[in-house]
Input
Amino acid sequence: MTEAEQFLVAQDVYLKAGIHIGTKFRTKYMEQFIYKTRPDGLSVLNLQKIDERIRHAANLFSKYKPDEIIIVGKRENSWKAIRALNKHTGIKIFAGRYMPGILTNPVLDNYIEGKIVLVTDPWPDRNVIDDAVKVGLPVVALCDTNNNANNVDLVIPCNNKGKKSLGLLFWILAREYLKNRGVIKSDDEFKAPLEEFTEE
Output
């Protein structure tokens, strides 16, 4: 099996984006995804596991229509990436501060409904996770080495703070979602440039 068949993008593309660079802190739960700890104390995530989980998430999302999926990112570093994903897939996004009740309280002006939620970081996005649990929605979360996975149904291990890392991850997710939904036939048909998703 060649490297191209093995990974969703070439290994050096992942490495350049720093998708595998974790933090100096590691939780018990995230240890299973850690490949090694560097001399400077930063944990390095296993690239194979990152790739497998992105693929798994894309397959899972493809069972849902775009308006049934909600992607939430409180951290500003994720906004450009999730807005680009929204533009190309129609998946609902929530960029910025999420107030409790948006998923649970129909009387709110900004009430939204969905069938599955993805959060860019379980800690700042914990209000969303709490709401999703209340209404019984499955939760997918991007988790760094310092995250806990309470109430998360599927963890995608990755550097969930870096703009390049988040840009690449959501670019891949957008492409794979469209392919799995039959909107495009091949990688080549996905015309969105990576730069549209990432901050320089």
Remarks:
- The mean pLDDT is 95.
- The longest strand covers residues 69-73.
